[in-house]
């Protein structure tokens, strides 16, 4: 394509958007809404993942040891536990330490502890896994060791938590893909209307020998421009909404962890502008390919 052709191609998207102002506004608002929902859901899933990771990393496996065990057997058991694949750390908790922790937990209920003549708690190990997925294999392996009386890890609730977190992550990814697909279709429809409005002009251009790229590129740039404008506006709305919601929730739900606002600004701005540009490019390419016979 000749350099002189850009003098015609570059202004054309702006002229087309201004010429079809009502349609342009509708298309931009639709892209804004779509990318806004995508952005909000992406941040929601990101924060859910962050809290899920903290919850998953807090899962501990309690291994209770038989009372009648000598020091040699204890050392052997400790070595076997540490050798289990996936075990990140092993902490020995004596029955005395266990009772002290129980006293701290009950707080003012000292009369309950005073009623206990002998310490009923066994010696134990507290295990942490390298990854949440390794908790169940560790439980299965440690349960088969000699001198292990019982293993506790929050049976039932842990499996449900892992299942719920995986379901949320999959649902979030699926919804973002669907919303992105919707944005592509809407941008494609807008470009298609531009093509229909300029059919006679395109026919004349082809008749006088205009190249394919000379005809197609203004529509490609128009879709990209729609995507970038929509992405920019959606980005501002997402950042504003996140800042407002985060301040509201932090004052009431102090146990939750949120990604700091300063850390999401650059990724959100860059990501949404890039996504808007890509969606606009794909949508306009689909419309041009289907509705311009070049």
Describe this entry's structure for a reader.
This protein is an alpha+beta fold and 294 residues long. The chain folds into 2 domains: 3-55 and 160-291, no CATH class; 60-153, Alpha-Beta Plaits (2-Layer Sandwich). It has helices at residues 6-9, 12-19, 21-57, 71-82, 95-106, 110-114, 135-143, 157-197, 199-207, 212-252, 261-291, and strands spanning 60-65, 87-93, 124-129, 148-152. A 4-stranded antiparallel beta sheet has the order 2-3-1-4. The radius of gyration is 31 Å and the shape is elongated. It starts with 5 loop residues before the first helix and ends with a helix.
Concise overview:
This protein is of the alpha+beta class and 294 residues long. Helices cover 71% and strands 8% of the residues.
Measured by DSSP, the beta-strand proportion falls in: 5-15%
- What fraction, in percent, of the residue positions are helical? over 70%
Oligomer: single chain
Largest sheet: 4 strands, antiparallel
Q: Note poorly predicted spans.
A: none
- Write down the secondary-structure element order: HHHEHEHHEHEHHHH
- Which structural category do the helix and sheet elements fall into? alpha+beta
